[in-house]
Specification:
Chain lengths: 185, 220
């Protein structure tokens, strides 16, 4: 009888434990599972001619991240050889005018795509919508956050990592910098 | 007379068998083609995106849609990444045909049982075609210039938005659409919120975030 009761208790505890494990909410993941596979203390970025119209906003967004107390230094360079981030401009029709204003893709050295939740990356391509010209600096800072390893945080409108339709800020916030430091500490 | 009838019937039966064999062979080839593509996917690209729209907001999605239907995907006709009308490269997009089973939000041009052409962001395309949409620096950095043309034509790239679902031939969906005059197709919008698998027997739709079946909010 005691053995039966013990087994039942073990089963109940196991079931409770399993059921309390929550799936990741990808709208509020905050940080990806992985990060750059190299240092960000001398991070270089390059702006393709397709995104040249946004150069000042890209520079401002980069400076926004690097201006906080963190390991990140961002330098604009004239070639995309071994850069951490490359910026490209895309027309609104590229996405079929579906509302997309920015996109970030992560790659290994050698150019194979890697999901930021499956492995570390060497560089990131960032696409910006040159057709809508919607809140460019904020969007760029958001996408840079993805490149650095930050995921969406839609439940916090005061984070740059909330998507545009959720957030009320357009610059990097201290909490975003805190998360960046947690990733690269 | 009887011999003539039997001869004609025999010929018709033989023709029917031949035609059936051709259809089966064609379907098998389609399945083999898809399996061949699936076996040669070189890269699966899943992008993080920022949007000005809240696709999870059904009211907003309804407002942005010109047409809301329950439809069965009649065919998936591959993917494109070039807009002939605009002469521009676009995000790899799946194209196909959907049969309209029910209309939730009406469009004067569309009726039940119509078959309409659709397009939806995300899809699988050959490396040879994918490469054409990239900037020269991207081609070099992704090492695509090291591939032979034959390798590029027989290798594939699968593109999708993070968290999105894949559209499947033969399945019935609740879908939100608007006509894209730049490509002369109805565009399925809303990503994973705009394409919800529908179960006619239970009158429920599948929530792509929770994977649970929920009562459809519309009167069908």
């Amino acid at each position: 009888m005691k053995k039966v009761v013990c087994c039942m208790l073990i089963c109940m505890i196991s079931i409770f434990g399993i059921s309390s494990v929550k799936a990741v909410d990808l709208n509020n993941q905050i940080k990806f599972n992985y990060k750059y596979n190299r240092s960000i203390t001398n991070a270089c970025y390059w702006v393709d001619s397709s995104a040249a119209v946004f150069t000042s906003q890209i520079n401002a967004a980069a400076a926004d991240w690097a201006g906080y107390s963190n390991p990140l230094n961002m330098t604009a360079v004239s070639s995309n050889y071994a850069t951490h981030m490359d910026f490209y401009g895309k027309a609104d029709n590229y996405w079929g005018s579906d509302g997309t204003i920015g996109e970030t893709l992560h790659y290994l050295n050698g150019g194979s795509y890697i999901s930021p939740n499956n492995g570390s990356w060497f560089y990131a391509d960032i696409y910006l919508n040159v057709g809508r010209q919607y809140n460019i600096q904020g969007t760029t800072a958001h996408e840079i956050g993805h490149a650095l390893g930050l995921a969406h945080w839609n439940s916090n409108p005061n984070s740059i990592m909330a998507q545009s339709n959720y957030r009320i800020v357009n610059t990097v916030r201290p909490i975003d910098n805190q998360h960046l430091n947690e990733i690269y500490s | 007379m009887n011999k003539q009838i039997i001869s004609v019937a025999s010929i018709l039966i033989i023709l029917g068998i031949i035609c059936t064999g051709v259809v089966i062979s064609s379907n098998n080839k389609d399945m083999q083609d898809k399996q061949g593509i699936d076996d040669n996917i070189m890269m699966e690209i899943v992008s993080e995106y920022d949007s000005i729209y809240d696709n999870s907001n059904t009211s907003e999605l309804e407002e942005r849609s010109e047409l809301i239907i329950i439809g069965t995907i009649q065919s998936i006709d591959g993917a494109i990444n070039y807009n002939e009308k605009l002469q521009e490269y676009i995000m790899t997009s799946t194209i196909g045909k959907v049969q309209v089973n029910e209309i939730v939000k009406a469009n004067s041009d569309i009726s039940v049982n119509d078959t309409i052409d659709f397009i939806r962001n995300g899809g699988t395309i050959s490396v040879a075609e994918y490469e054409k949409s990239l900037a020269p620096r991207q081609v070099m950095r992704q090492g695509l210039n090291n591939m032979t043309q034959e390798e590029k034509e027989n290798s594939y790239v699968k593109v999708a938005y993070m968290d999105d679902v894949e559209i499947e031939e033969g399945k019935e969906y609740l879908m939100y659409l608007r006509y894209d005059e730049n490509i002369d197709r109805y565009r399925i919008i809303g990503m994973q919120y705009g394409l919800l698998e529908y179960n006619e027997s239970t009158n429920k739709v599948k929530n792509n975030e929770t994977q649970s079946w929920e009562n459809i909010k519309y009167n069908i």
